[in-house]
Amino acid sequence: MDQADVEQLETTLFLEALYRRHGYDFRNYAQASIGRRVRRLMDKTGAASVSHMIPLLLHGDGLLPLVVETLSVNVSEMFRDPEFFALLRNEVIPYLKTFPFIKVWHAGCASGEEVYSLAMVFKEEGFYDRTTIFATDLNPLVVEQAKAGVYSLDSVRSYTANYQQAGGQAAFSDYYMARYGWAVMDASLRENVTFAPHNLATDGVFGEMHLILCRNVLIYFDRSLQNRVLRLFDESLVHGGIMALGSKESLKGSEVAAHFQAVNAKWRIHKKIAGGAPDMVTGDLDGAGPLEAGLEACGE
Amino acid sequence: MKALSGPGRFDAVVLGGSAGSLKVLLELLPRLPGDFPWPLLAVIHLHPRQEGRFVTLLDQRSLLSVKEAEDKETPAPGHVYFAPADYHLQMEPDQTLSLSAEERVRFSRPSIDVLFDSAAQACRSRLVGVLLSGAGNDGTEGLCRISEQGGLTVIQDPAQAEHPAMPQAALDALTALAALGVGGPDHVLSSGGIMELLVSLAEEACGQAGGRGAAPEGGRS
Ligand SMILES: C[S@@+](CC[C@H](N)C(=O)[O-])C[C@H]1O[C@@H](n2cnc3c(N)ncnc32)[C@H](O)[C@@H]1O
Questions:
Q1: In terms of residue numbers, what domain contains B201?
Q2: ipTM over 0.90
Q3: Which CATH number is correct for A82-298, 3.80.30.20, 3.40.50.150, 3.50.50.60, 3.30.70.1050?
Q4: Which site in A161, A239, B97, B178 is 20 to 30 Å from B171, CA atoms measured?
Q5: Whole-angstrom Cα distance, residue B120 to residue B216?
């Protein structure tokens, strides 16, 4: 065993300790990236090796927030990939409008930038009042930030161009108030949003969702965890429900691939057409028109 | 630990470049044989809008098949995989590819260091690292990692690079490593020299395997 092998072993042991002692399961994350994050944690704690951090983890809670913050990648933006949000507005929402009322699960929402983006689009399309949004993330700290909806003014201003490219119809600056270098997001945007911690690796199904948004989360997982999460999404969606993943995240080779049909392949927007918890097809959907029909047909 | 899979001495070639490296790639990749025995993974700092077109152009001009890397993809010989705009490209310990949208490293995403470092971990000595023209110092740390693991390090001669800072930084760091006896710059070459080196490494690997293309294990003597 050379030094690199030893560090890999230490990382495995560290992640096992984290899971068994605190319940946070990073064991099935893609190794290159989690290895780098564990090394970054080592820099932050000043530990001499990865295994030196194990006792700190076992004998107290003090290190935990730093560990969770460092291991989870919380970077996000508003209207990242404007083209995706334009599609959401122009193709997905007209279809979702065929349901009387919809539930949205925004998984891995980080500090909430995407949640506010989604809420703006729903509002402008006159659909917000018919939606309930559940916004979840593994990291309780970022869930609190998402709930607060306060971002640095510079960063929010820098999203203006994205907003416009995504087909935004209002003045972007109407959605926030500038205060001492901070942008305070308009509280009406989160009226229908419930923020909560939820861990995709260990927690269960969210029932009867019509839209699941989970972007730039699955790439951090290995194949087995990706499969677990995709099964979870499959089981959480109603028949005809929409699942949108990040532009580099695909269903290819997953167990549930056959249950979905591509609505837009480039932007990884999929519609559930079969499988997964059939008992969840409820009366809700009866008025929704032909479920198997493509979006073109549903868009009126 | 994964089995050694590539023919001859290597499993993969990693390339990194920034300003001034596009021209080098346009000269280099079209002249490599279509049956090049290893996959090539590349991180080039590009403006996001340029990138798609550049990959298509290189693919049209090369015998190699050039594409954007996909998450969890298994890289194949004779293929070139570019990091997509705004994502880091990494090699996993099982030598599959993965992407990540983590924060920038050395002001860059994709970052050359992230690719080189992860590939050095996955391939150990069975890796060729090539650093081309550019400003800044992304790639220096990664190339040092490759060298420490016993891989082959190749630097575009700063004197001939359009932007010498990046190859120069790597050259200085590797020279310092050599003084400590743990690696060093193996080749400092013109762009033409890099092309010739890669072709001759490929020929050597194919020759050892007893023919071009197919490369059964155990062909080394
Ligand atoms: C790169 S961010 C993506 C944020 C946003 N969706 C976007 O695309 O801009 C990834 C998020 O996934 C969360 N995450 C990672 N592992 C998770 C898990 N097992 N369960 C829930 N969330 C997780 C991280 O905490 C982080 O906030």
A1: 12-206
A2: no
A3: 3.40.50.150
A4: B97
A5: 23
